């Protein structure tokens, strides 16, 4: 016996050719299946490597909040201003209404006072005319004493020696006796002093200044002892007179005196003038 006969062999036993072929076939089939499956499978998407920066939510938030707060404050201020304006308008309307009512009341009171003054003046004028008729009907033998009394009797008739334009001026003012006195009045039924004088001279084509100050220097200055019918009498200084009238002769004048008496005819000593000017 060989000395190696008892040593077992380390080589694997050979497989039969049929088993090797079978294993090769199975392996090939598996690889084919894997290859076909890999070809049919969709390509795997590449992983996202780009970083997207998300907007910061708080960016500009403080500015927006500040603007909103400012707008809210402005609205509040506008509402407060409107409230003040409405209150002021209401107060002004109440004040205007009260002032209007007061003005109406004063106007009515003034109107009543003027009406009462006019009625009083008319009553006085009627009384004067009654006295005048009584004087005219007196006997001729008493004419001298009647002439003396007429100088102190309001609206006593005067037989003026005026002629021409002066007579027209005298006639005009005497026809206005009894009319009302109204500040700024220029006729035809109410006058102030200078308005009456201006209208009287306008009847003879003479256009005098409107106010008494100017009328007191419109002609030639004459002394009170040298008066003629138609002369303009003035009270106060020449150039700054505060009242004017017309001398009608017989020591009397006609003038729009005041709201209580209206237009009257009076003797000079009733209210002695300061001076006189002659236009005609």
Topology:
Blueprint: H1 17-40, H2 61-136, H3 143-150, H4 164-175, E1 180-181, E2 190-191, H5 193-202, H6 212-215, E3 220-222, E4 232-235, E5 243-249, E6 252-258, E7 262-267, E8 275-278
Parallel strand pairs: 1-2
Antiparallel strand pairs: 3-8, 4-5, 4-8, 5-6, 6-7
What does this molecule look like?
The protein is an alpha+beta fold. It has 2 domains: 76-154; 161-278, Alpha-Beta Complex (endopeptidase fold (from Nostoc punctiforme)), CATH 3.90.1720. It is built from 6 helices and 8 strands; from the N terminus they run ααααββααββββββ. The protein has helices at 17-40, 61-136, 143-150, 164-175, 193-202, 212-215; strands spanning 180-181, 190-191, 220-222, 232-235, 243-249, 252-258, 262-267, 275-278. Strands 3-8-4-5-6-7 form a 6-stranded antiparallel β-sheet. A two-stranded parallel sheet has the order 1-2. It is elongated, with a radius of gyration of 63 Å. The relative contact order is 0.09.
User: What's the domain count?
Assistant: 2
Q: Would you identify the regions where 5 or more consecutive residues have pLDDT less than 50?
A: 132-157
Helix percent band: 40-55%
Instruction: State the CATH architecture of the largest domain.
Output: Alpha-Beta Complex
Taking the sheet with the most strands, its summary is:
6 strands, antiparallel
Q: Count the helices. How many?
A: 6
Characterize the overall form. Answer: elongated
Order of helices and strands: HHHHEEHHEEEEEE
Structural class: alpha+beta
Q: Examine the coordinates and then state which fold CATH places here, giving the name of the CATH topology of the largest domain.
A: endopeptidase fold (from Nostoc punctiforme)
SS elements, strand count: 8
Straight-line distance between termini:
200 Å
Mean pLDDT: 77
Which sequence of strands runs across the widest sheet?
3-8-4-5-6-7
CATH superfamily of the largest domain: endopeptidase domain like (from Nostoc punctiforme)
